[in-house]
Every structure is written in structure tokens, then in C-alpha cells.
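Materials and Methods. Structural model of ABC transporter ATP-binding protein. The 316-residue sequence of ABC transporter ATP-binding protein from Vallitalea pronyensis was retrieved and submitted for structure prediction as follows.
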Amino acid sequence: MIKVSGLTKRYGEHRALNQVSFHIKKGEVVGLLGPNGAGKSTLLNILTGYIFANEGQVLVDGMDMMQSLIAVKRKIGFLPEKPPLYKDMTVKEYLLFVAELNGIAKKDRHQAMEKAAHHTGITHVIKRRIKNLSKGYCQRVGLSQALIGDKEILLLDEPTVGLDPKQIMDMRQLIQELSTTRTIIISSHILSEISVLCDSILLLNKGHMIAHEKVENMIKNALNIHQLILRLGLAGCDQETIIANIKCMEGVLDTYLVGTYESNTWDYSISVNKGYDIRTQLVALCHEKNYPLLMLQPTVLTLEEMFMKLTEEGGA
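The predicted structure was written out as C-alpha cells:
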């Protein structure tokens, strides 16, 4: 459905995107993740046809975006982080206006408006002014404008930002319902949201694509790395020496100082490959070096920690 090859976007000397390539199948829901400045907004702006890349190609349903821009735009609906709402209009007036902007014939605009409103559950507020609606309903109106014209592809930028917990649950359910018949890309910084809504994750960092994997594979990778929290008293402990000694142990992927959570203590986070148990070695090390061992606690790497690990590696 969407095939991106070698996409590069430059602003002067700065590369907002650098040779980004990926393929999204029809009906797939993809989470677009990355820290601030990763290139997410630039990628979405290119996919909507708002800006063009300096290099590379975007194919949508087999059509080259540069050569068939109008036809491609007819397939794509976009919900920006701040929906483009005219708040003095009623919902009905606004959606009819959007239908006109989409080039829908006058005789068909009312039907297009009603269909989009029905899909997003706002038919009962259709006559109200947008400025009098809650944040949750404003977001639904924004989603409705993205649907006008039976768009096959939806690009959603932070669709739940600023919503209360109930509104977030409602919006997630709505997106899940829409995903049964559409291809959707969701840009979000909330990993739990992505893991619930998406089939796969596309991870950007500093303009580079770091990963494009199925959500279940990301979770599996997270579960394959075990974490240990080691708490030591300060007496006689040299941090660099401790970290170096731990990193030498077989199966250890990484070790770093987390901080202090009790007075006169240091906590160390240790990432260990699944199948390795280094707890006995750690106890022996502490005994040999006279390190005051106060706690040794196993944990599991979370998706958030996996995200941080991948972006740190990608930015190195």
C-alpha cells in the first residue's frame, strides 16, 4: 500500500530524514515512534504531500506521489496533533466545508459529511458549534475531517494528546474500529498506546530508521533481555571499577549507574541475555571485593526501556 525508498529530506546542512525505506501493507496499522527531532513530523508531512523529499520515492497503491500527487492525496486523510478546526462553525458546516475542499460534488457533500460523522460517533452533536465541544469531541471532529471522501489511508499525529483517560479509551476504540478497513499510521510517544493499537512499529532516530518490526517481536525481544538492579553501599565502592568488573561477566549486555534511592547507596542496572543467571557471580564479586551488597533484584526489560536502548544505539 505504501512503499518508501531512500527518502532523504534536507534543511540546509541538516538532514531531517536520511535514506529512510519501509513498506506498509494494506490494512496494516503502524506506530511511528522516535524522540523529539527524530524526523516523525517531516515523514508525515512528506506522506501527506505537504512537502517533498530531496531524494527517494514514495509509492501509494502503486502510484508515484511526485507524478500523481492529486490522486494520491485523495487516498490519504490526515489528523494533525492540533486539528485544523474552525471553532465558530457548527460541526455540520465544518465537515461540509471540508467536503468542498476535497472536491466532492455539491450533491454528494451531505452524504459524505453524514458518513464521516457516523463513523466517529458525532451525529448527535452535528448542529453544535465546535467551540462548545469538549476536547474529546473536538478530536473526533478532527478525525471526521480526515475521513471525508472515504480515505483509505489515515495518518494520525498524537491522536490522544490532551485527552482525559475516558476520552483516550474512546479514541483508541474508535481507531481500532476504523483499522478494520483502512491502513493507518499513528505517530505517538506513548508506547503502551502503540502496543495496543498497532501491528508493527517504525522507529526513527536523528533522521535514520532504526527498526521496523512487528509489535509482538519487539515485546519478545524485550522479554529476551533480563534486567538486574544491584544496590551497593558507598563504602569502598569505585563506580567505574564495579561497572568494568560486571561487564566482563558472560551474558552481560550492558551495565550503568542508575542513581541513588537510599542514602549512602548506588543502584546499578544490568542487562543480561535470557538464559544467563549471573546472580551467584555478582554475590561472589561483592564478597571478594568487600562491596556492601544491599539488594539484588531481577526485573524484565519494558518496551519503554527497549525504545530507549534502540534509540541510544541508533544515535551512537
